[in-house]
Write a structure and sequence with these properties.
The chain has helices spanning 10-18, 24-39, 45-72, 86-89, 94-119, 121-136, 150-175, 190-213, 215-221, 226-255, 270-282, 286-312. The termini are far apart. 72% of the residues lie in helices and 0% in strands. It is an all-alpha fold. Helix 3 packs antiparallel against helix 5, helix 8 packs antiparallel against helix 10 and helix 8 packs antiparallel against helix 12. The radius of gyration is 19 Å and the shape is globular.
Length: 313
């Protein structure tokens, strides 16, 4: 057990494993999905709440999986400069972290039973694929995060699927009978897809910062993240490109005439985003990038709140 492990209580260790600072990635898509549903007159509070609880459980379960698998596979070492990993540092035994991972995903499945009742077969398929992908991100014979697919995973599941899924279950609750076998009309829309892109982009940027920070140690450990594959310059270009996408979508919504100028509220966060981007573009140390990672999470939360508010108003 490391010196760190002797100074941290068990409760603190489990909080570190759950990584509550990543929960904006679970809340943001629900906030945006609710904002669009209110705009469309399709807000349904109970399905929206269940969508958030399910998303949060999948996020935490994925965090447990990442902590456990990266430790047992030797990806996390003492040279790592990021936040403390509880399995690698000896704070919590590996078997307990593994059980917590499966228990959390099981709870997500239980919440999903209600969402399947509301949304039918499409939600069952999406839910099972989301849980399987959460495990496969760091585990299994072909871990996504170790083969350059982590960014795509986050973009799709914590962005597009999460926002569209939140909108879908609310719309299905009002427009369709329970346990539908198909996709009811009006539940999957182009606007829902477009609204998901800013969340997908900034959520991906959280991972980009993480992988830029860990690029050298991941390379040494044989973990081939996208940052390891493409290097610092392309990873930083990805960060800037994702930020641009997150601001282009509100501008498109306004220019399309479907929303008023208030949908441009997310542009208020541009100065903050520029400051964080400045750090990502120039730094590689954990001392600088750990705060940048947290600030990217805060940017996701504020941007999503303002975007949802703009759609509502």
């Amino acid at each position: 057990m490391t010196e760190t492990a002797t100074e941290i209580s068990r409760t603190e260790a489990w909080l570190m494993a759950a990584r509550p600072h990543t929960l904006p990635a679970a809340a943001a898509p629900v906030i945006v999905g609710v904002g669009l549903a209110v705009h469309e007159g399709l807000f349904a509070p109970l399905p929206a709440l269940a969508a958030f609880v399910g998303a949060a459980l999948i996020q935490v379960g994925t965090n447990f999986a990442n902590d456990y698998y990266d430790a047992v596979k030797g990806v996390d070492t003492d040279e790592r400069t990021g936040f403390t990993r509880v399995t690698q540092s000896g704070l919590i035994p590996p078997d307990e972290v593994k059980r917590a991972m499966y228990s959390t995903f099981l709870l997500a499945v239980l919440v999903g039973v209600y969402l399947v009742y509301v949304g039918g077969l499409p939600i069952l398929v999406v839910g099972l694929v989301s849980v399987a992908s959460g495990i496969a991100y760091a585990g299994g014979p072909y871990p996504l995060g170790s083969h350059g697919l982590g960014d795509l995973f986050v973009f799709v599941f914590f962005g597009v699927v999460a926002v569209m899924g939140t909108f879908y279950v609310q719309a299905a609750a009002l427009l369709a009978a329970p346990l539908s076998l198909g996709v009811p009309a009006g539940t999957v829309t182009q606007q829902a897809f477009l609204a998901s892109l800013p969340v997908a982009a900034i959520s991906t940027n959280i991972l980009v910062v993480n992988n830029v920070r860990d690029l050298e140690t991941d390379r040494e450990a044989g973990k081939r993240t996208l940052a390891v594959l493409v290097g610092y310059r392309a990873s930083r270009a990805e960060y800037v490109g994702m930020l641009a996408l997150s601001y282009l979508v509100p501008a498109y919504f306004w220019a399309s005439g479907a929303f008023g100028a208030v949908v441009l509220l997310p542009l208020l966060t541009v100065p903050y985003a520029a400051t964080v981007a400045g750090t990502v573009l120039t730094e590689t140390s954990g001392e600088a990038l750990n705060p940048a990672l947290e600030r990217t999470g805060k940017l996701l939360a504020v941007h999503s709140l303002l975007f949802a508010l703009g759609m509502v108003l």
